[in-house]
């Protein structure tokens, strides 16, 4: 053990270091007393203090590392955002209307009854992102905003802005958003992920579980990592920096404060952090970002073949002497570039535009990163009479088809924010009905006027308004009786009062909500600013 400890001992304070490490090894290999543990801990602290006082050993001190992490966070945090994406409310048949019986009938299934009693809520995704341009361009994960009908970006300052989806790429799970703040915004830069090394320190920033401004630290555990659900264009940076739900789309940064990855996936047995997270490298992210900025979607080159890699066994059997190359196993697109150029099943592609092809994935990457319609040259080996003959094939690449379900696959897909010019305007996104005498009796509001909230548009800002307790301010079945100190007599009176308000105006609603357990209506005050 002494020899091992000598090899691990810094040039200074070697006596303290060696004693400390002995206690640590003892703790690992056999139980130790509480006193021994305290001694070991004290020695570690003492070693850290003395090292901090004498940094001439060439290693960064704990204080220095702390300063580095603090500076990185200070530099990057202003450009990191939280993203709230709402999906459309699912349609539910036979929902209970205000005033309907609160008990199940004989023909009701009890689960269906309780399902109908639940308030309608839109599905909500919470994720992270970062501003990549002062004009308000935001990078995040596509799965954060997938199928969203309303997206809100919360800045580091606390300001909330509606976001437009410029484009999303299913292959890499990257989406580009745009917000308009009316001013230049703080932003971060994409670094060169190819320069990242296993063992490098990194920080992950984002909003895990909705907790904004969270920073975790770790190292790069692996580069070019594939996962069970990754596409051919996802070769992840693996890190042990804590990444949880809500971190998706946030930046992974190096010690220079450059973004080298977009936090995208975790490997977990619990659904939360298990020490293994994955970030899409910044170089692939940059390609997607630039493509979407220019075209609104990602244009990738397309060859129209299925591929496999040359392995040692194939090289030995066929006498190739080299284990590099990609085998064409099938020419799938009959009218595609490969078929038109005369490529055949069994051909081995060894060079693409003069660059060696390492394997099938390498060829896919080279083809996809080349713009469609560009002429390219392939060096291939083709078997003829039991011998491989070298050939050069010139062809023009096509455009890779979009995957089913890709956000850009449907050119008519509605862009956010949604435009509803053909729909009748509804005050604050509320569908209302006048309070009937029967409902007034049911709600214990005899003699009271007001309007009943039948539906709340999840796209409207009022759907996000909360009470001081954190619960939704308005719910279906609530009765609005006053708006800004004016009594509400009917739908028209409420609509007229709402129409006079403009963006930035304060609003106070007096709302009566029915408690079915106590069978009484209670007053609640709903306060918000017109957005």
Radius of gyration: 31 Å
Poorly predicted runs are 1-13, 28-41, 49-54, 92-104, 113-117, 409-423
The proportion of strand residues reads 25-35%
Q: What's the quaternary structure here?
A: single chain
Strand order of the largest sheet: 5-4-1-2-3-7-6
Q: Structural class, from secondary structure content?
A: alpha+beta
Largest sheet: 7 strands, antiparallel
- Characterize the overall form: elongated
Q: What's the count of strands?
A: 27
The CA-CA distance between the termini, in Å, is 68 Å
Report the mean per-residue pLDDT as an integer: 81
Helical percentage: 10-25%
Question: If helices are DSSP runs of H or I spanning 4 or more residues, what is the number of helices?
Answer: 12
Feature tags:
27 strands; alpha+beta; six-stranded antiparallel β-barrel; seven-stranded antiparallel sheet; 531 residues
Overview of the molecule:
The structure is a single chain. By secondary structure, this protein is of the alpha+beta class. It contains 12 helices and 27 strands. It has helices spanning 2-8, 14-29, 34-53, 62-76, 110-117, 142-145, 282-295, 312-317, 337-341, 360-368, 437-442, 491-499; strands spanning 80-87, 124-133, 137-141, 148-154, 160-162, 164-169, 174-178, 201-206, 214-225, 236-239, 251-253, 259-267, 276-281, 301-302, 305-309, 326-331, 348-352, 355-356, 375-384, 387-396, 398-399, 430-434, 451-456, 479-483, 486-487, 506-515, 520-529. A 7-stranded antiparallel sheet has the order 5-4-1-2-3-7-6. It has a 6-stranded antiparallel barrel with strand order 8-9-10-13-12-11. Strands 15, 16, 17, 18, 19 and 20 form a 6-stranded antiparallel sheet that branches. A hairpin with a 7-residue loop joins β8 and β9 (214-225). The chain starts with a helix and ends with a strand. The relative contact order is 0.09. Mean pLDDT is 81; it is low at 1-13, 28-41, 49-54, 92-104, 113-117 and 409-423.
